[in-house]
Design a protein that fits this description.
The chain has 313 residues and is mostly helical. The chain has one domain. The chain has 15 helices and no strands. Helix 7 packs parallel to helix 9. It is globular, with a radius of gyration of 19 Å. 39% of the residues are buried.
Amino acid sequence: MLLLLYAVIVRLKSILTPISYEIKESDTAVSHFIYRILPESGWGQAVVGIFLVFIQAALINRFSIRYKLEEQLSLIPGMIYILLSSFYPALLILSPALVASTFLIAGLLQSAQIYRVTDSGFNNFNAGVCFALAWFIHPPFFIFILTGFIGQVIMRSYSLREFAQYTFGLFSVVIIIFSIHFVQDDFSTLISKYFYFQYNLYDLLNWDTQKIIKLLLGLIPSLFFLINYTKILSKRVILATKVLNLVFWFLALGLIGFLLSLNQTAYIHALFIPFSILGAILLLRIKNPFIEEIIHLVLLMTLFAIQYNLIVI
């Protein structure tokens, strides 16, 4: 419940000045279906967004605790995720990227679980379903489908049987979505919605405040964690090492998409997942708890300053 209270406090701005996500023609059929179920009002979507971020943070905490990624049990990974996913006003909107991030986290959990089970078919299939749903809700997340294949190589000896199980999970969703489009006589839009991505090198010539913030928010933490790769993996048991390697590959895929995409916001939600896990590891290694609190307080004050227009971006 403390995590939920923290999410309410950090995302309170979304309730005070609610902004609803307006579904676009370019959004996928799955997104259209989801937003028909969700409240149309900005206030209703703000409440759903708070609960969704809370659930995502709880899943991240479960992931970290299950594999003993931190030296001590804590809610810090989830707190970091809530903080990052609310850092500036555009992130407070209940966007398809935020919704799809739930399935990315679930897919990451399923990919990691194959290490401990004798028959990993169920987990492989579920991972395929989760990553496919993330893709069909938010097409730029297509790149994270590779996470499942990479996870099979990292977590256990790769086999054609497990490859087929994961692929079957992917294609079960693909077939259902394609069938819906076929029945609705909307088959011609499939390529443009799900397979066409506008990729380009980050345009460094057209600077504006939003681009600078997105670049700093995505690139600097990524490079920081990659530089500290050896430090983060030091003195780890085999399982934790494998899981962290999977997290680093997830980070690498997100960073590739982030740098090559014309829309960096499309990937920033996904990058917050490894940021929160890896950031908590380094934060908890600080010997002086006072420094931890200072870092948290500075980030929290910066967040509120940006949200309430004390710092204009």
